[in-house]
Structures are given as C-alpha cells and as structure tokens.
Write a sequence for this structure.
C-alpha cells in the first residue's frame, strides 16, 4: 500500500515525465504524414479548444488535456515525444498557452482555510523552468514553477473559461449570470433559443490583471456567453459568442477591453447557422456556416415565395431552430474581416459540411473537419480543396477540432485512428505536404 501511494504521489507532481508514445504514419487514403504525439488508449487525451493557441512560444511543445494523472494537463515535445505533466493540484476550464513567453495560464477553484469556495484562482506556470528541471531530474516543489496571479471573487466567476488578451498582461473570463444582471444592459434580456433550451441571458465578460490580480467587469450582454478568445494581434479586443447549443440569433460578438464598442461581427440572417468561430489573423475571424439539414420549405413557386417572405412558416412551425442550416443559401468556411465586416466564402466540402474550422495567420489557408471526421485544406487564393486526412474516429461528443501551428506548416487534431477501442483520442499533428508549404513560402 505504501509503495502504491508513493507512486501515485510521484505521478501527481508537476514535471513528472512519461515515456514517448510518438508514432509517425502515412494516411492510408492520402499519404499525408501524420505524427501521433500520443497513441495509447484510455489515457483521456484531448486538445485545447480550437479557438486557443496550442503550442508553446518556442514552437517545441504542444499542451493538452489528459487523464494520465486525473485532472492535470500535459505537454508533449513534437520532436522527442517526451510527455511532461505541467499542472499540479488540478485545473478547470480552458488552458491558455502564451505566445510571447514560455508561460501557461489556467484557473482552479480557490478555497479558504475552512474549505469554503471563495472564487477562481488564476495560475501562471513557468514552463521554461519546469521543462529544464524535469529534464535534469532536479524537480522542486510546485511553488518554484507557479505564480498565483490573483483570485476572481466567487460572485463574479464560478467557471474556468478563460482567454489571454493580446498583450498577455490580463485575461478575460465569463461573468456569472447574477453578477451580470446587476450591470447595465442595453437590450431586453433574451429567453432561451432553440430546442436545447439554452442561450438565455444575461451574461458578460470580465478581466483580471495578471500582475496586480485586480478583477473587474468588461461588459454585460442580454444573452448567454459561450467561448471567449482574445485577439493575439490586437491587444484590448475580446471575441465571444452567444451560446445556444446550436443556431444562435446572432452568434459572433466582440467588445473592447474597456467595455466600449460592443458589436456583432458577422451579422447573420435567420438562414445562417454559424458556429466555431476563431480569430486567425490580425483582422480576420473564420467561421463555419453549416448546411447540415434538409430543405423543407415550400416549393419554388409564387405561393412558396410568399410563404418564405412571411417567414417560412411551414418550416419554422415544425422546427424551433427556424429556417436555418440548409444549403438553399451559401454554406461552408467563411472568413469575416473584423474591421470592414466583409465576408468571403472560402468553400464547402463536397457532399458534406464543414464543422470546426481554422486558418493560417499568413492568409494562405483555411482548414476544416467535416461530419465524417475528415480534414480538408482550402487554398484561399485559388479555392482548391485538398483532402489531407480521413478516418479519424472520435467520440460522439468530441471531434477533430483542427488548429494551425503559428508558422502555418502543421495542423493539430485529435483522433482515435490508432486507439484499440476506437474511441480513445490521441494528439496528432498533420504536416502539410512540402509542395503546399513551398507554394507560398519559397
């Protein structure tokens, strides 16, 4: 019993190393090189959500979630496959990997000496120091690698969704509903929208100064706030969404860090089913406009036209998502210019639908997974659609979730392709074929 307890304690220590599981294969269908950085079944691996940075600032390590140690995060070295535990004491919500420093930021529940919850603790992890000590085998206690940036009061925040500002001097978080209710909100509070009974307001965004620990509200809105993200290239801009579990009346939003200029980004129509937005460059947001549902409205006759003008009554009466999500209107990967609001349709997967989308910051490529768990690449200059890899089984509740590496040469996904049980996901790097990299990087 003592030996077992000691082993568990050791494996809970920040900096603990795990053997490489790295495997390199060629996709059976396309021949594209796939680098599986993890390959075991039952380890609970999953990547950070596709809205966020995945790589450390030196480009060598990928941060991911795992159950190798229950409730802790891991890093894996792309070249060696070494796996290192990078949190201790658990984390909650989003992992935020800095781009300007070798730091990782996350939240965890903060309690007083009596065990009463007092808020959410924001933690900074010095990865450079941690990796060096882990490699040398001279690990110290976690206080040598952690800094508590501050505690967000419980009445302001009770969940861990978080995003770094582009300055990396403060972080954004979701305000609790009751806290937001006490703030000024311009619009009437929205009720739930759609059959999943989600989306009711109010909601809001707050921020915490990572140096002083001061927390303050940014803005309150009339709806439920979903995923939030900072613009890495424009400090002081936060992008977020109206979360309904499906189609939203107006999905994409942004606001300045001082609470000014709250506005929609892509002003969608009732026909657009917009989802999985991600900031991909200084002025651009990529979105998926999906057309996954059958067209059920009246025939294309004068009577049918009148019905559509009246609001597609026959469709809306039978489906509380309304007349959205069909291919009667343009669908696919789209890029929105945040400054001008100009929308560019980049393309749709043949015979299917793009679901989760990403883009390279150099402006050359967008990528998306489809409902069959295939990963496609689109050349933004020519419109060419390229199937990169297929056969990536995932769980019913999770998906491929592509994210580009900052240099545009790789895409990280999660996949159960190699899992014995066909369900356990692993961390996989899809390397763009060299001729595609050379196309715009000669």
């Amino acid at each position: 019993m003592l030996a077992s307890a000691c082993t568990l304690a050791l494996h809970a220590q920040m900096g603990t190393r795990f053997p490489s599981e790295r495997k390199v294969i060629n996709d059976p269908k396309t021949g594209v090189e796939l680098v599986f950085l993890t390959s075991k079944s039952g380890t609970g691996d999953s990547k950070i959500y596709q809205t966020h940075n995945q790589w450390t600032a030196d480009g060598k390590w990928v941060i991911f979630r795992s159950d190798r140690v229950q409730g802790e995060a891991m890093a894996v070295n792309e070249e060696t496959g070494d796996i290192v535990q990078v949190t201790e004491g658990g984390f909650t919500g989003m992992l935020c990997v800095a781009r300007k420093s070798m730091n990782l930021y996350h939240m965890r529940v903060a309690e007083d000496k009596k065990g009463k919850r007092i808020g959410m603790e924001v933690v900074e992890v010095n990865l450079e120091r941690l990796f060096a000590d882990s490699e040398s085998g001279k690990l110290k206690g976690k206080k040598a690698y952690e800094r508590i940036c501050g505690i967000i009061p419980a009445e302001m925040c009770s969940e861990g969704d978080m995003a770094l500002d582009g300055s990396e001097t403060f972080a954004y978080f979701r305000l609790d509903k009751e806290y937001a209710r006490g703030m000024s909100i311009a619009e009437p509070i929205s009720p739930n929208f759609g059959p999943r009974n989600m989306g009711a307001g109010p909601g809001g965004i707050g921020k915490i100064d990572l140096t002083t620990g001061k927390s303050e509200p940014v803005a309150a809105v009339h709806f439920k706030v979903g995923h939030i993200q900072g613009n890495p290239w424009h400090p002081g801009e936060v992008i977020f969404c109206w979360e309904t579990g499906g189609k939203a009346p107006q999905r994409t939003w942004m606001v300045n860090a001082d609470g000014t200029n709250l506005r929609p980004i892509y002003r969608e129509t009732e026909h657009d089913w917009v989802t999985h937005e991600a900031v991909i460059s200084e002025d651009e947001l990529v979105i998926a406009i999906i057309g996954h549902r059958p067209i059920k409205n009246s025939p294309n006759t004068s009577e049918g036209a009148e019905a559509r003008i009246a609001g597609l009554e026959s469709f809306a009466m039978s489906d509380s998502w309304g007349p959205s999500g069909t291919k009667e209107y343009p669908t696919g990967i789209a890029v929105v210019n945040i400054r001008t609001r100009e929308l560019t349709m980049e393309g749709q997967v043949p015979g299917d639908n793009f679901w989760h989308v990403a883009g390279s910051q150099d402006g050359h490529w967008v990528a998306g997974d489809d409902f069959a768990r295939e990963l496609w690449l689109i050349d933004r200059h020519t419109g060419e659609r390229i199937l990169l890899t297929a056969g990536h089984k995932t769980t019913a509740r999770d998906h491929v979730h592509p994210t580009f590496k900052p240099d545009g040469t790789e895409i990280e996904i999660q996949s159960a392709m190699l899992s014995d049980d066909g369900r356990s996901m692993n961390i996989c790097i899809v390397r763009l074929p060299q001729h595609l990299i050379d196309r715009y990087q000669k």
In short: The radius of gyration is 22 Å.
